[in-house]
Amino acid sequence: MATIRRFEDLKVWQEARILCQEVFELIISKSTINDYKLKNQINGSSGSVMDNIAEGFERNGTKEFCQFLSIAKSSSGEVRSQLYRALDRNHITKQAFQRSYDRADTIGKMCMGLIKYLRNSDYSGSKFKVEEPESIYGNLD
Fold first, then answer.
1. Would you state the pLDDT for residue 136?
2. Cα 51 from Cα 71, distance rounded (Å)
3. Cβ atoms of 108 and 76 closer than 8 Å
4. Can you give the pLDDT at residue 126?
5. Residue 60 region, left (φ>0) first, then alpha (ψ -120 to 50), else beta?
6. Domain locations in the chain as residue ranges
7. 30: which of 17, 114, 121, 135 is 20 to 30 A away, CA to CA?
8. Residue 125 neighbours by CB under 8 Å, 6+ apart
9. Sign of CA dihedral 117, 122, 128, 132
10. Cα separation of 74 and 116, whole Å?
11. Over the Cα atoms of the chain, what is R_g?
């Protein structure tokens, strides 16, 4: 398995980015032009999915990462709920709804899978890694 060095390497973040773009393309349609509240909410919650994955990863600790993954999972649920509202108001087609709903659902499952993996791991995160002074500052002799 490859080492993950940046949040951009995470498949779950990559999927969240695609979801965010899909949602944006859905909300710029003319039918949603006056539904400001829904447009702002679904745009914000889809962005929250990818942003919380990134922020949690950058905290460099597994407990914090799990917390932010949980928030990202919740935001993916919020996106799914808002997709129903967009469908019910005839802003999106059933096909567009299903595509984005399925992606948001998959992202939620991926977040939960990553949370379970991290909770069962002995790794605490890079911020807890103790380095020898020589490796940080070089040879001080």
1. 46
2. 10
3. yes
4. 65
5. left
6. 11-26+33-120
7. 17
8. 59, 60, 61, 62, 63, 64, 65
9. negative
10. 16
11. 19
Q: Average model confidence (pLDDT) for the chain?
A: 87
SS3 99: helix
Q: Alpha-carbon dihedral of residues 115, 58, 4, 138, nearest 10 degrees?
A: -130
Judge: domain 11-26+33-120, CATH 3.40.50.2300: no
> In terms of Cα–Cα distance, which of 82, 74, 84 is closest to 49?
74
The token pair that represents 56 in the structure block = 């949690």
Token digits for 41? Answer: 């909410």
Q: So what's the pLDDT on residue 19?
A: 98
Question: Could you give the CA distance from residue 69 to residue 62 in angstroms, rounded to a whole number?
Answer: 10
**Length of the chain as a residue count:** 141
Amino acid (1-letter code) at residue 15 = E
